[in-house]
Design goal:
This protein is 27% helix and 20% strand. By secondary structure, it is an alpha/beta fold. α5 links the parallel β9 and β10. It starts with a strand and ends in a 6-residue tail after the last strand.
């Protein structure tokens, strides 16, 4: 089969690799019909090379059709249409029973002290072959895949793999009361969807912050108040972002802030240098640096701490990688800030989201992707997405082999 594979920093290729096979009695094999490129895939493209091996298959946002089932699979049959959550969760352990699917005790990567394994995402999360490929082996076939109906195009359902539950959890964790205010930092795929979910769930004032014109335009078109970082701090009044947000929220700051930026944050030269240094070290040393030192660019998180009101909530959906990044704990304590974060517990939210996808399209998922490209175009798509070029916000790849 053909698959997107990692070969080094900013070097992904589409290679021919062995087809996956049934390895456990409850495995299923899925022929992928659509698979997304996620903002966190850029962390693999740019930063997390020390935890990858050449040839690792990338991708964690796939859907397709079941083409083979193990002998113990009873909930699915060949031909069923399924979406694959990005966390590999068993559905039966204590953590899964608590709705904490991203902490699944069956697939935790104890060697690195990590939570549940993830498809296509480094040794830190199990080094499980990913879904930017023609076929994918999916374990826990009775519990993990999400069965969806025939009819609507893949765009209606594929975001159940990551974008929708990640955004839904981020907004739920932000805990904005109906009529309240929310700031979303970063209007990439997750941030953009967070603004849509927040308005759907009753937030009255949703403010989106970014510096890419196409992203700002997309959010504004759906009723979000947008703030262009290119103009902040350079206008005639010299306002910083915190001043702009406080002016928009009665002087207090936002009730909640979602940081949908994470490691891609702008504004911290020291963090950028640390990331660059890891790329020049041997893998063992680079991995040690990343797991023990501060290597992140924390501009977005520090902005969130500034612009949230006293007693407000910060919800982190952006991924951070350093273990010793400095945090302004005195300010956080003084402002009585609540901080919630973590990988999305996909199955925890499917029951809330799927009915919306079957009843019209209130979140605008049918038109959410800006680019639909063949799998073979993945290397160019990664480069364009990294450069924030060509108006690219969300790309779906279509493998060459698919069921009609």
């Amino acid at each position: 089969m053909r698959a997107v594979t990692w070969h080094g920093k900013r070097d992904v290729r589409v290679d021919t690799v062995p087809d996956p096979t049934i390895e456990a009695p409850d495995d299923v094999i899925v022929q992928i019909t659509s698979t997304g490129i996620c903002g966190s895939d850029l962390h693999l493209y740019e930063v997390l090379g020390p935890f990858l091996d050449e040839g690792d298959i990338l991708g964690h946002e796939p859907m397709g059709r079941v083409v083979e089932v193990g002998p113990q699979v009873t909930n699915l049959a060949v031909g069923d249409r399924v979406v694959i959550p990005f966390n590999v969760s068993c559905g039966t352990c204590w953590m899964c029973g608590k709705g904490l699917y991203s902490q699944c005790e069956t697939t935790q990567v104890r060697e690195y002290g990590s939570g549940a394994s993830l498809f296509g995402y480094t040794k830190l999360y199990g080094q499980v072959p990913g879904g930017q490929a023609e076929y994918l082996r999916v374990p826990f076939g009775n519990a993990l895949p999400v069965k969806v109906p025939d009819g609507p195009a893949d765009d209606r359902f594929v975001y159940l793999s990551d974008v929708l539950p990640t955004s839904w959890q981020a907004v739920r964790y932000a805990d904005v009361a109906p009529g309240g205010s929310l700031v979303v930092l970063g209007l990439g795929p997750i941030g953009d969807m967070c603004t849509r979910v927040a308005r759907h769930l009753g937030a009255e004032q949703v403010i989106g912050v970014d510096l890419v014109p196409e992203r700002l335009e997309r959010a504004a078109a759906r009723g979000t108040t947008v703030v262009d970082l290119n103009g902040v701090g350079s206008g005639k009044d010299g306002q910083e972002l915190g001043d702009v947000v406080r002016d928009l929220t009665g002087g207090r700051g936002a009730d909640a802030v979602i940081d949908a930026v994470g490691m891609e944050a702008h504004g911290s030269p020291g963090g950028k240098v640390a990331q660059q240094v890891t790329g020049m070290l041997p893998d063992a040393l680079a991995a040690k640096l990343m797991t023990t030192a501060g290597t992140d660019r924390l501009g977005a998180l520090h902005s969130a701490i500034d612009i949230v009101r006293r007693g407000g909530t910060i919800s982190l959906s952006g991924v951070y990688g350093g273990m010793a990044d400095p945090m302004p704990m005195l300010t956080m304590f003084d402002k009585q800030i609540q901080l919630r974060m973590g990988q999305a517990n996909v199955h925890r939210w499917v029951g809330d989201i799927l009915p919306l996808l079957l009843d019209g399209d209130p979140l605008g998922v049918d038109g959410f992707a800006t680019h639909h490209l063949p799998l073979e175009s993945a290397p160019d798509a990664y480069a364009t997405f990294q450069e924030k070029g060509d108006g690219m916000v969300k790309t779906l790849l279509t493998p060459g082999a698919h069921l009609g």
